[in-house]
Automatic annotation (TrEMBL):
Function: Pyridoxal kinase involved in the salvage pathway of pyridoxal 5'-phosphate (PLP). Catalyzes the phosphorylation of pyridoxal to PLP.
GO molecular function, one term: pyridoxal kinase activity
Catalytic activity from the UniProt record: pyridoxal + ATP = pyridoxal 5'-phosphate + ADP + H(+)
Residues at which substrate binds: 12, 47-48, 225
Nucleotidyltransferase listed as a keyword: no
Name of the protein this chain belongs to: Pyridoxal kinase PdxY
Domain of life of the source: Bacteria
Length: 290
């Protein structure tokens, strides 16, 4: 029988709704992965509501929790680490120390870093020390990075001017160490208005994918976290990177369709669960080059 993969997922938790682990854990489980959620914050709701209650986990808790798992002899069963929103560079360094510890016991373990910097237009940004940390330190250790275009622009210090420019930026990030860069959401002048586009860049090649752009009165939050979690889950299930990319686009689109049909602001993950596991739609990634 095929072993069930295990993922240590280090990101935020919201009590109500879906963002961070609250957007990623259930879908990862639904596609067949055991998830160990390590919640970096516990907030009442995601921050786009403009108000929330709750607390940030003290940075020393991250190594303590990882050591606790080591102490019961289970850390070597960790197949991958997923990290999302970071409150500080210190929290990021604690995560990298955990990744290093896990890779020393299980050299095959993977690390996916979602370099969350928020959307300036959504009113959510991270301190400069966090973006420096992501580019200078996390990229060197990550097997996969999943920025959106705003995050990629921020790494590059300029705005992408074309699709090929996005590709060049993703390749520059790839050159810092990861095996693959998944750009979850492209944005460039001249992008067709009716499409939502993504990019996968590896040492072997680059692939572009377009799915329909759906209209929402308020953009749902947590889509990036869902995307990163599903991509990692499918890679751990044995998909090649292009198949995992195509699966992720389809499964996320199914969630967006269900969310739109329910006129919901929060992602309809429970209602869409069968379609997450078995998407009815399919989008083909097409190879592109510079
Ligand atoms: N098919 C779609 N149609 C319309 N909006 C979408 C679609 N897929 C994702 N989105 C929206 O696009 C943004 C996704 O951007 P991305 O950068 O991947 O993630 P996030 O902002 O969640 O980290 C979110 O605002 C999400 O609600
Ligand atoms: C607590 C929390 N975690 C994570 C996120 C990131 O979500 P997204 O996937 O939309 O980038 C947000 C966005 O507002 C948030 O409030
Ligand atoms: Mg995001």
């Amino acid at each position: 029988m095929k072993r069930t993969p295990h993922v240590l997922a280090i990101q935020s938790h919201v009590v109500f709704g879906h963002a961070g682990n609250s957007a990623a854990v259930f879908p990862m489980q639904r596609v067949g992965v055991n998830v160990w959620p390590l919640n970096t914050v516990q907030f009442s709701n995601h921050t786009q509501y403009g108000q929330w209650a709750g607390e940030v986990l003290a940075p020393h808790q991250i190594p303590e929790l990882v050591e606790g798992i080591a102490a019961i002899g289970e850390l070597g069963n960790c197949d991958a680490v997923l990290s999302g929103y970071l409150g500080s560079a210190a929290q990021g360094r604690a995560i990298l120390a955990g990744v290093e510890r896990i890779k020393s016991i299980n050299p095959k373990a993977l690390y996916l870093c979602d370099p969350v910097m928020g959307h300036p237009e959504k009113g959510c940004t991270v301190p400069a020390e966090v973006s420096d940390f992501l580019l200078e330190e996390a990229a060197a250790m990550a097997d996969f990075m999943c920025p959106n275009q705003l995050e990629l622009n921020s790494f590059s210090g300029r705005k992408a001017q074309s699709l090929f420019d996005c590709l060049a930026m993703a390749r520059a990030l790839l050159a810092r160490g990861p095996k693959a860069v998944l750009v979850k959401h492209l944005d460039y002048p001249g992008k067709p208005a009716e499409g939502f586009e993504m990019l996968l860049v590896t040492a072997e090649g680059s692939w572009h994918l377009r799915r329909p752009l759906l209209a929402f009165p308020r953009q749902p939050v947590g889509v990036g976290d869902l995307t990163a979690g599903l991509f990692l889950a499918r890679v751990l299930q044995g998909d090649n990177l292009v198949s995992a990319f195509e699966f992720t686009a389809a499964a996320v689109h199914e969630v967006m369709l269900e969310t739109q049909a329910c006129a919901s602001y929060e992602l309809e993950l429970v209602r869409a669960q069968d379609r997450i596991a078995h998407p009815r739609v399919r989008f083909e990634a097409t190879a592109i080059s510079l």
